[in-house]
Structure formats: structure tokens, C-alpha cells
Design a protein that fits this description.
Elements: E1 6-12, H1 18-29, E2 34-37, E3 44-52, H2 59-63, E4 67-75, E5 77-79, E6 88-91, H3 98-104, E7 110-114, E8 123-124, E9 127-128, H4 129-134, E10 144-158, E11 161-168, H5 174-184, E12 189-199, E13 202-203, H6 219-223, H7 229-233, E14 238-240, H8 243-250, E15 255-256, H9 263-269, E16 279-283, E17 286-294, E18 297-303
Parallel strand pairs: 3-12, 14-16
Antiparallel strand pairs: 1-3, 2-3, 4-11, 4-12, 5-6, 7-10, 8-9, 10-11, 12-13, 15-18, 16-17, 17-18
Length: 306
């Protein structure tokens, strides 16, 4: 099979790892260069972004976008993992009322700080946090700054269960949000269901479902849903290069901005171009490379072999 470059958005099932989804796709389309942006725990379902080929060089763009999650909280119980898979470590007879929950929500919206769960993939001296925690060793993470754009109580099911929806930045741990909600309400809490509904402009409604049975997963069916690299790159400023300019960039050379044929058009759209952290270039509508601007020079940071 010829080389494939692009993105697939998969609706991940509960009980399967993100890595397993990547392996299934890799085998099906016979491509080795496959990865994902933003891990979903096995107990979580929903939108998983899978990069194929040269699209793996744009993973950071997906990771940096806002995410929307729906999660179900169990009040009165905290667990070692802050979700349903952990051991019960504390219980409380106190159950928050719907009014109490609604009055607290505004405090969890905006720029906030949270402490990641001890069972997380964060590295401590090169070792994953969850590996240390499984050895019953003490784990302590520093507070991290995150942005919660929105938090809604979608349903107050009963005194033990509530469903929320959160729109948040990269690095947000929904399990920590649930844990901290419980603590602040003088109760305990953990996540019993978690589903990622959106990543940036991409929704789980448009994601593909993989047949995880013994049936063959046909690659043509999967690739019919392939999202082009350009659809992902469009969040960045772009500049169109001539063939000659594109070849220089492909070979790792730098270009002076005043020597680029279409740079005047670029400046008209981005007068403060020197402040741009990252952009990309195309030639004949084909993505060529990610670029950096430094001292009136454009330098390739990642070249696409497409």
C-alpha cells in the first residue's frame, strides 16, 4: 500500500487502550508510522485522534486544542485512581444537593490550578507516576495551571450521581476535577464514566467506529474517513511558496522574508508576523513544512515528506 498521510478520528470503546486502537489501524492500513494525540484511559470512551504518516509531525496542534468531555460522578466515595477502577480510600455520608453543586461550579471555571492524579502518565525522575503509585510509594505532584472554559451540570441523577460536561485546555485531568468537586463540597467523589465528545472543531458525532470483533477491518472503509493534514494545519498562519522556494525549505535551507515572492501578501494578513510562533508553507496547495520566523529569516522546523 502506498504511503498515507492524514488523520483519523475514532470513537474509542470502553475497555480498550488508545495504543491498541493505534495498533489496529496500523495493521489494517499496513503503515508503521501511526500515533495518537491525547490518551484516553481504558475506562474512557470517545474521540481519539490518530495521526498517520507525516501527520504525526502535527500531533502538537491537536494536543493544544480545547477538549469537551462528559463525565459521570459518584458522590461520597474517593478512590486511589480518582475513577471507578481504583480502590476505595475514603467515604463520606455527605451528599451535595443540586443547589450546592450549581453554586460551586463558577469556582471551577477560568484559569485554575489542579493537582494531577497520582495514577497518571506524568514522569517523576523519568518514571511514570502510575508505576510509582502501584509500588505503594508516595507520589506528590505540583499544582498545574489549566483553563476550564465551561463546566455544566447536565443532570442531577440522584444524591449519589451527577453528570457534567466540561470544556477545557490541554493538560486537564477530569478525574482531578471530580475529586476536587467532592472535596470542596465536603464530600468525596470519583469518576465512574468518562467520554470525550470533541477535540477542537472535530466531534465524536463524525468519528468512525472500529469493528473490534474477529472480522477483518477493511482499510478502504477506514481511509474513506481520512482527514487531510491541511485540515489540521489550517489553525496556523500559512504562506504559499514557489517550487524553487519550496525545494530550498525541503532541503532544510532558510529563506529571507524579503526574498519570498508571496511574502507581501502574507504581511497584509499578518502585519505583526515577527510575533508568530509557528506557521506552515504550501506549494500548489500541498503542505511542505512547519516554519519558524527569526530575525527576518524563515526556517523549517519540520519538513513533510509528502
Amino acid at each position: 500500500m502506498s504511503k498515507i498521510n492524514g488523520w483519523l478520528f475514532v470513537d474509542k470503546h470502553v475497555g480498550i487502550t488508545s495504543r491498541k486502537i493505534v495498533d489496529i489501524i496500523s495493521r489494517s492500513i499496513k503503515q508503521k508510522k501511526v500515533g495518537h494525540a491525547g490518551t484516553l484511559d481504558p475506562m474512557a470512551s470517545g474521540l481519539l485522534a490518530v495521526a498517520i504518516g507525516e501527520a504525526t509531525k502535527t500531533v502538537f496542534l491537536i494536543q493544544n486544542t480545547k477538549k469537551i468531555y462528559e463525565f459521570k460522578v459518584r458522590w461520597g466515595i474517593s478512590t486511589s485512581t480518582d475513577d471507578i477502577e481504583g480502590q476505595i480510600i475514603s467515604q463520606s455520608p455527605i451528599r451535595p444537593t443540586k443547589k450546592e453543586i450549581l453554586s460551586l461550579i463558577p469556582k471551577f471555571i477560568g484559569d485554575i490550578e489542579q493537582r494531577p492524579p497520582i495514577y497518571s502518565a506524568i514522569k517523576i525522575n523519568g518514571i511514570r507516576s502510575y508505576k510509582i503509585a502501584r509500588q505503594n510509594k508516595k507520589v506528590s505532584h505540583k499544582l498545574r495551571s489549566i483553563i476550564v472554559s465551561d463546566l455544566k451540570l447536565k443532570k442531577y441523577i440522584d444524591e449519589d450521581h451527577s453528570i457534567f460536561e466540561i470544556t477545557c485546555s490541554k493538560g486537564t485531568y477530569v478525574r482531578s476535577i471530580a475529586r476536587d468537586l467532592g472535596k470542596t463540597l465536603n464530600s468525596e467523589a470519583h469518576v465512574v464514566e468518562l467520554r470525550r465528545k470533541a477535540i477542537g472543531k472535530f466531534s465524536v458525532k463524525n468519528a468512525i467506529l472500529l469493528d473490534l470483533s474477529s472480522k477483518l477491518i477493511h482499510s478502504p472503509l477506514i481511509l474513506k474517513n481520512l482527514i487531510s493534514m491541511k485540515d489540521i494545519l489550517e489553525v496556523l498562519p500559512s504562506i504559499n511558496l514557489t517550487k524553487e522556494e519550496a525545494m530550498k525549505i525541503k532541503y532544510g535551507q532558510c529563506l529571507r522574508v524579503n526574498e519570498i515572492k508571496n511574502f507581501s501578501n502574507f504581511i497584509s494578513n499578518y502585519p505583526n508576523y515577527s510575533e508568530i510562533e509557528s506557521l506552515y508553507c504550501t506549494c500548489n496547495d500541498i503542505p511542505i513544512a512547519l516554519l519558524k520566523i527569526n530575525k527576518n529569516m524563515i526556517r523549517p522546523s519540520k519538513v513533510f515528506n509528502v
